[in-house]
Structures are given as C-alpha cells and as structure tokens.
Amino acid sequence: MREYKIGLVPGPVSVPGKIREAWLTNFGSSDLEMEFFELYAQNQALLQRLLGTKESVVITLGEAMSILWGGLKSALKPGDRLLAVASGLFGEGFADMARAIGVQAETVSSEYDSLPDPQKVREAALRFRPKLITAVHCETPSGTLNPLKELGEIAREAGALFLVDFVASGGGVAVDVDANHIDIGLLGSQKVLSLPPSLSISTISARAWDVFEEVNYGGYEAYLPWRSVPAVRYMPCTHDWHGMTALNVSLSSIMEEGMENAFARHSRVAALCRKRAQEMGVKPFPVSEDICSPTVSAFYVPDGWTWEELDAALRARGMAVGGNYGRLAGKVFRIGHMGSQADEPLVARGMETLREVLKR
Length: 360
Ligand SMILES: *Cc1c(COP(=O)(O)O)cnc(C)c1O
Description:
Distance between the termini: 27 Å
CATH superfamily of the largest domain: Type I PLP-dependent aspartate aminotransferase-like (Major domain)
Bound molecules: pyridoxal-5'-phosphate
CATH class of the largest domain: Alpha Beta
Largest sheet: 7 strands, mixed
Strand order of the largest sheet: 2-10-9-8-5-3-4
C-alpha cells in the first residue's frame, strides 16, 4: 500500500495527525455512558453553527451514501414524486435511486460543465408538484458549485421538501441551511471534515420530521430512531465513539481558525489551483470560473495524454489526484482541495509536480 505525499484526491481526504490520534483513543460503551451523549450534543451544537441551522442535526454511522438513501427512504413512499436538479453524477443519481424505491422521478438537467437553469426547475416543480426536490451543492465529479437560495425558494413555492447533498462542500463554504430553506441537508465525514468515511451528518427541519413521521420508514438508515438523541439516551445501535471524538477535534479546529477564515482559505486555495492550471495550459472543465467549487477543481485531461498515463506519471512522483466516472471518465480529472488539503503549500507543490510531468 502506498501513501502519497501529495494527496489531492477529492475524498477521502488525508486525515491529519491530530484527528488520527483522537481516533485511536479507547473509550467505554457509547450507547450507555453520559460522557458519550455529552460529546454527541457538543458536536450537534458545533455543526449547527458550521452549517447555519437552528434545526436538528443527526450524526449517524456509515458513509455518506447511507444518508442519501436514508433521506429518500425517510421522506418518500412508492408512488410519490421527486424532482432531481442535476448537473452531474450525484444529481442524476438521486433520480435513479428514487426510481429504485418505486418513486416517480423527473430530472431538470444541464450539461455537466454548467448549472441547471432555476427557471426550468421552477416550471417543472409547479407542473410536476414533487414531494421532494433534490439538489447537489458541490457536484464533485464536475467541480461545480450550485447556488441554493433560489432552489430553496422554489421548493417552498411548490410545497416540496428541499434535500441538498452538501457532502463535498459543507465546512469549506457556507451552506446556510436555514437561510436556503434546506429541509434535509447531507454531509459526509471524509471530505472537508477530513475524517475517515465512517460518519454521516444530516440537518433535518421540523417540516421534514413531520413527513418522516408520516412515512414511518424503518431500516438501518432510518432517521426516526435518532430524533430524540441525545435527550433520550437510547440509540438504535452502538455509536462510533472514536469517530465522534475525531469529529469534535475537526469541528473545534475549524472554530478555532474561524469559519469565515476556513471558507476564505478554501477559496484562496481553489483560486491558486486554477491559476496555476491556466498558466500551464490545463483547461478547466466548468464553463466559467464563477460556477467552480472552492473544494474541488475539475480539468480536462491535457491533449497528448490519456488519463491512465497522467495518473501513473503523477503517482510515480508521489501525487494522487481523482479520476472520473460515467461520461467524464478518462476525460476529466480532479484535484481535491478540501479540508486538510485546502493548504496552499500542498496545492502549490501539487501544481508544480503536474507542471513537471506535463513538460515530458
Ligand atoms: C463523496 C460524495 C458523496 C458520497 O459518495 P461516495 O463517493 O460514496 O463517497 C455523495 N455526494 C457527493 C456530492 C460527494 O462528493
């Protein structure tokens, strides 16, 4: 197994030493001890601040896909309608997942290098009358960031719940859950928070809880059993005390830095990455700078290179970047500068390595 000195994969990101250390502490029983429930409450409060919400925060076990499924299954019954706003793989994925559980799904899509037109979303929402509208804040494979405010307002106007996957942006850019009318907000641990991929974080509005009660879904990814944790000291399974401690270290370090400073650091590093790429003639994938995500940059694989050759040449120099999926596979590669990797010297070193490799 190789460890890359220049780790710039867009998740799972490099886990910093102090988070690894926190992870390795030994604990008692997370389902029985007061200390664990206090830690859970502390993390909830920090996440409310970070994500801009006064509504509930639920911290569950499992990789982020568990809450993408959990959000859909908790809010929808077979026959219900879902409208997916899609400009990439994850956006489209919500419609596919919904169909797999018997939900009628429609999509308002754009090319993956641009963003869906909110006016088209509004028309579709008012005609189709979905119960749930889904959107992806940072569409990681495309390197784009989708503004949420207008979509949230459309969901309110159409009487739909608004679910947002901010797995790859939350903590690196403001997501403003309440201001953007997000009813179900989803965040993973292995992106900006720089933890291993074992915890998932969801924000859930009072409106969403009402729908969850009515749907009454039961299953491993169901939210209802978590509703009263930690006021009621009972969880559906043993929690990950290691992960929860590491999460506390990660959130505390963002708060020490200052949230605004952390967001500014992400923007600065993203700008540096794209400027260096431009200087060496590497073409950005998104159609314009203003739709680029501050947490990940997507570029075309340069002419004269296959993705496999580029990847091998970078890895030979100790640098790992992200490939791509579906229609972008082999054509677009990604540099993940989120969380621990939103680090100017690291990204500068990575871009210098890329420049040396391309001189071949
Ligand atoms: C990482 C990510 C997820 C979780 O998916 P995995 O690839 O399984 O980690 C979900 N949504 C977005 C936008 C992501 O970037």
